[in-house]
User: Fold this.
Amino acid sequence: MKLSDIRATLQEIRVSPVKTLGQNFLHDQNLARWIVDQAEIIPDDYVVEIGPGLGALTELLLEEGARVLAIEKDTRLANFLHERLNHQRLEVLNMDALKFDARVLFSRRRVKLLGNLPYNISSALLLKFIEYPSPISLWLLLLQREVGHRLSASPSTHDYGSLTLCVQLHHRVQYLRTISPTVFFPRPEVDSALIKITPRDPLELPARDDELLMKLIRRGFSQRRKQLQGLLRAYVSDWNAAAASLDFNPKARAEELSLNQWIGLTNYIAPAVHAQSDALGDELFPVVDKLDRILRHAVRSEVHGDNLRHRAVHILIFNQRGELYLQQRSRCKDRHPLLWDSSAAGHVMAGEGYDEAAKRELEEELGINVPLKKVLKLSASPQTGQEFIWLYRGEIRGNPIPNGSEIEAGAFHPLAVVNCWITGRPEDFAPGFIECWKAYQKKARDSEIVI
Ligand code: SAM
Assistant:
């Protein structure tokens, strides 16, 4: 839309731009097209646009063939956009984007997020939609230049800080260009920046405990001018040895450490994830016959390598809203690394019963101890990886504390989201979970009770 069209439209629909909603409308059509070009839209794309306003970017996205979900808080603009574009590939949601449940997007194949964000909440919106794990494969955001610099900063610069590392831990950030206030109506007081964010390959950076890493980073940047050696004394007892082994100056301040050095420092003080999983290789499992009677015991590598029948437990944990907690399996698992799975799951060990194993796995993986109800048993089959599986369920208040060395990530999901996600992207899930979930739902339907 040209500047004259924007003025005329606003007059016609009786809207004067609201500062608290960051209503600065883009009127440079060449720039709008260039921005949309950076999203490299293909017709299969599902684009979520935050704050479409009068549709400067929306109509170009539709022209490129994308399906667009436009989330607009201002009812007058949402209604206008719906009527003006009236397109079968456009859905306009009139709501606060901060309240949108981004997990529903897991059921879509290729999701991109684009927005000329309202300034006053741009960081909050960014952090909400960038939360890891995320179904989004590309973020293209217009936000304040200063925030753009902080997101894309390099070590030893003024802008480099905990926001930089928090975002760069799972994403790559590109500062595409600075954008002048003159391209908006009304003109904002500051420059903007166009930022492109893409997810990192989860295997690109070394395995680590993200929670511990972020704790170190926050502490390290809590007093930027101070040396890390004093700030992190409680965590790192032999600071000089750590600095020598990770190749940084023992007098370094937080901004001098690269992301890789922060990860190195985390792994220096945490038990190494790989060493732990290697140690698990010697665990003994009962090998069973087709009626689940114990024949003998064997080590994990033999049981999995020779496809022997063995025993496992899966636990489904629900919160008070009835949402299911899904875990993403650790990258170090010998089977199905990084796929999504039951809330907790694991093998029954030698000398252990199913109930004992369920209680232990729940504590080890999620740090919780709640009463568990036995729901159903699945027979060993190729779909379960030759495991006899007892499925349990439990409920908790609050959130589990996932064990970073066992689990990559985890989150609660509404059941409708879980079902759409399994239908849309079955390859994201461990086959054992799909079998358990199918059987669980069937039992819930057949017994017509909440189990
Ligand atoms: N995309 C349009 C453009 O480029 O011309 C408008 C961008 S304007 C900077 C920001 C838009 O976000 C406005 O339409 C505003 O009403 C909308 N908005 C503000 N807060 C919002 C929120 N919490 N959720 C959704 N939209 C919001």
Observations:
- The first helix runs from residue 3 to 12.
